[in-house]
Amino acid sequence: MSTLDITALNQYSNEELETRVDHGRLPRHVAVIMDGNGRWAKSRYMPRIAGHYEGMKSVREIVTACREIGIQALTLYAFSQENWKRPPEEIGLLMKIMEGYLKSELDLLLEQEIRFMTIGRPELLPKPVLRWIDKVETATRDCDKMILTVALSYGGRGEIVDAMRAILEDYRQGNVDLHDIDESLIEQHLYTAALPELDLLIRTSGEARISNFLLWQVAYAELHLTKTLWPDFRRRELLLALLDYQTRERRFGRTSQPDFPQTIGKPS
Q1: How far apart are CA 61 and CA 31, in angstroms?
Q2: Are 139 and 106 in contact (CB under 8 A)?
Q3: CA 102, CA 118: separation in Å to the nearest integer?
Q4: Catalytic residue chosen out of the listed positions 5, 37, 83, 212
Q5: Whole-model pTM?
Q6: Fewer Cβ close by (within 10 Å): the C or N end of the chain?
Q7: Does the active-site annotation cover 10?
């Protein structure tokens, strides 16, 4: 749950919010469930696809803002395995938008020295999208200021299944012993093995569920839930999420309270 008094901060300008962010306590890895494009469009009596196009403007602004603020890794949930159940017309338009994003943003990614990666099961994606993914990943592979990861045809359960399959294949080939299998080994076989540990998960649109996203990685991540629809989530909302994160005490199962006394008192 969010612990930040958002109402109290509404009086501040974006510039004032910027000054309140502690750059020494930034999350290394931020992930976003980008939700609410359809509702944004419906509330304006527009077709759903209009919400997706507007949502891409938020993608550009948040990517740039994270790079400028100093976030090491940003992961965006763009298309889930479950999204394949949507109407074919909408899926086709979403793939066109993704292809268009890759074409239009390559120069910006290179200029800002952002490495582009994808995670998921890409084999179902259209070939033109796959070609552009390969082109952008190849072109930006040496960029080292931030990693932008886009989850496409992605499912958290599927990621864990794929990791276990890879470990079992290593075992079959004699490269891994059963006693070697631990949390560290599993993490090395996840799609996100090259990324820092997830620190902050943001979900837009007021929903309060993870939706099969980064199930392993979210174990100790802080959650920021906002009612803001994704097309309206811009730099200001990101700053509020970061300020919220910085109010949290991250204990990872430990306690900040003093130890209990060894003797509480004799029973009466």
Answers
A1: 15
A2: yes
A3: 12
A4: 83
A5: 0.90
A6: C
A7: no
* Catalytic residue of the set 35, 37, 199, 244: 35
- Residue 218 DSSP label: G
- Using only the alpha carbons of the chain, give its radius of gyration: 21
- Tell me which residue has tokens 């649109």: 205
DSSP 11: T
160-201 pLDDT per residue, tens: 999 999 999 999 999 999 999 999 999 999 999 999 999 999
Catalytic site residue 35? yes
Distances (CA, A) of 7 to 11, 12, 242, 245: 8, 10, 15, 16
Are 212 and 157 contacting, i.e. CB atoms less than 8 angstroms apart? yes
Three-state DSSP at 165 gives helix
Interval 215-230: pLDDT, tens: 999 999 999 999 999 9
H or E segment to which residue 151 belongs:
strand 146-154
Check if CATH label 1.20.120.790 holds for domain 26-155+197-245.
no
